[in-house]
């Protein structure tokens, strides 16, 4: 799902002709995910399925921009899916009341990344859908980080 979100976001940026600097990291991240998925399929003996997924990828890549409303809808759905995954993480933290192996630093860095993306989006494209996405993700990332810190178990020293 995260690979699909990256693809939609990349295609959205290209479709609207935004500056390369605003989305340059996405092709690199997507390439890493594709290589990882291929390695998983290769070593699990399912490499022939990789061709099917490649065809689906290229077909989806083309279909996203058949109509403007399709790419806009896909962008909004990706925001919804990303927010839902963070809400599931929050729900799990609330139920277990234990942050366990969840890293507050990682979630904090995600919040910082969203904050910087808000600033760069305002300065470069001022795209409302992208701004809404990053504002929602910033709020949820801060919320997850605060929840992790709240439920963190401190080590007792003798």
UniProtKB/TrEMBL annotation:
Membrane-spanning residues: 26-43, 50-71, 130-151
Q: Which domain of life is it from?
A: Eukaryota
Query: Which keywords are on file for this protein?
Result: Membrane, Transmembrane, Transmembrane helix
Q: What residue range is the signal peptide?
A: none
PANTHER family membership = MANNOSE-P-DOLICHOL UTILIZATION DEFECT 1 LEC35 -RELATED (PTHR12226), SOLUTE CARRIER FAMILY 66 MEMBER 3 (PTHR12226:SF3)
UniProt protein name: PQLC3 protein
User: What is the organism field in this record?
Assistant: Melanocharis versteri (Fan-tailed berrypecker)
């Amino acid at each position: 799902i995260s690979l699909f979100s990256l693809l939609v976001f990349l295609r959205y940026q290209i479709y609207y002709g935004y500056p390369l600097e605003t989305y340059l990291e996405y092709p690199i991240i997507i390439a890493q995910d594709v290589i990882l998925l291929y390695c998983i399929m290769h070593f699990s003996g399912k490499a022939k399925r990789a061709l099917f997924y490649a065809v689906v990828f290229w077909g989806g890549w083309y279909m996203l921009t058949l109509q403007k409303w399709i790419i806009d809808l896909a962008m909004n759905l990706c925001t919804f899916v990303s927010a839902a995954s963070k809400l599931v993480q929050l729900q799990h933290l609330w139920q277990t009341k234990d942050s366990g192996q969840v890293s507050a630093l990682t979630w904090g860095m995600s919040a910082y990344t969203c904050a910087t993306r808000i600033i760069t989006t305002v300065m470069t494209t001022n795209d409302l859908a992208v701004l809404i996405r990053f504002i929602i993700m910033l709020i949820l990332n801060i919320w997850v980080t605060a929840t992790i810190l709240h439920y963190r178990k401190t080590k007792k020293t003798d």
